Amino acid sequence: MNSPAPHISVNAAATSANLVCGDPFTTQLLALAERVARTEVTVLIGGPSGTGKEMLARHLHGRSLRAAGPFVAFNCACLPEAMVEDMLFGHEKGSFTGAIQKFDGYFGQAHGGTLFLDEVGELPMPVQAKLLRVLQEREYTPLGSTTARKTEFRLLAATNRDLKGDIKAGRFREDLFYRLSIFPLTLKPLAQRPGDIWPLVCAMLERYRYIGNIAGIEPAAAEALMTYPWPGNVRELENVIQRALIVADGQWLQIEHLGLDGSAVGFDVQGASSEPCEPVCSTSIASPQPVFVELNIDGPVDNVQQPDTLALRRDHAEAGLILSMIKDSPTKAAAAARLGISERTLRYKLARYRETGLLVANS
């Protein structure tokens, strides 16, 4: 697999909500979002946790006719039922113990703008019924008040649940579902839209330049970023990049800085060497010559020709140790445990060393 193209323009892919994409699926999804953004239609955004549902909601608001109004976001899963109702509807002063002042709920605060209900599938059933009435009547009554108040907002909702399954199980109202899902948009897991990974990496390195300013990424690290399954999606990728910038101690971001198997440089303080580590030019799988992946996004790719005797010796030694450990262990999982790495990392290393000819194909 070739190293990711370093000339991808992040700015060209960025939207008004700082969305970054490069995958055909996401490009098509954003094209649909552009069309629905200018309407008042309620949008239900689906997808696993960490895929960027709130970012897409903010993008829809920013492209809407209500862009000048407020964007009010509320996570429906973070509070108990009574507090969820209070936060949405608000309350009058003295309406309950502790209500020392009037509070305009999110229905009122979102007037003239957009209300985003994240994890809407977690709303308690009684609150679902009240939300449905607010959407139908466009009015609400704060706790402790007898006067209904008008409100006008555009509703966006998001969930990582199977709401149709919840309807069958009696956990979600069918009438509310059809009110919310007039125009559904569903984000795929990051692993299923690999074209987004490299633009996201470039954008995050630029965003967190204040943490650590590096010159580029070594091919092995770039390869790992592109092939890792990212179970935590974009949120996990962002965490990895921030952590890598903290522990990186040179110009180049290396695979050990990523900590994808939990073994990032700097995590084991007691076991760290006090000697400075010389930069090692990793050998790209696609080429026998060392090639650094430059972060000068608008510039050409630089092939840095440097002696890599140390790198080759390291790779030979590591390949030999891995092969010996596999032969002495009952399973590859056991070998990975003895080596102190994950089984996934072991598979990655075996594939890389087979590609470079350090191990035979049946190793």
Q: Summarize this, please?
A:
This protein is an alpha/beta fold. It has helices at residues 10-13, 24-37, 53-62, 81-89, 106-109, 125-137, 163-168, 174-180, 197-207, 219-227, 233-247, 255-258, 309-327, 332-339, 343-355, and strands spanning 43-46, 71-75, 90-91, 103-104, 114-118, 139-140, 149-150, 154-159, 183-186, 216-217, 252-253, 293-294. The model is unreliable at 1-17 and 264-309 (pLDDT under 50).
Give a written overview of the molecule.
There is one protein chain. This protein is α/β, with parallel strands linked by helices and 363 residues long. The chain has 15 helices and 12 strands. A 5-stranded parallel sheet has the order 2-5-8-1-9. The protein has a 3-stranded mixed sheet with strand order 11-10-12. A two-stranded antiparallel sheet has the order 3-4. Strand 6 and strand 7 (149-150) form a beta hairpin. The model is unreliable at 1-17 and 264-309 (pLDDT under 50).
**Helix and strand pattern:** HHEHEHEEHEHEEEHHEHEHHEHEHHH
Q: Into which percent range does the helicity of residues fall? A: 40-55%
Major sheet: order of its strands? 2-5-8-1-9
* DSSP summary: helix tally: 15
Strand content: 5-15%
The radius of gyration computed from the alpha-carbon positions, rounded to a whole number of angstroms, is: 26 Å
Oligomer: single chain
Determine the N-to-C terminus distance: 20 Å
Major beta sheet summary: 5 strands, parallel
Which geometry do the CA atoms define? elongated
Low-confidence segments: 1-17, 264-309
Average of per-residue pLDDT values? 79
Q: Helices and strands: which structural class?
A: alpha/beta
Number of E-type strands: 12
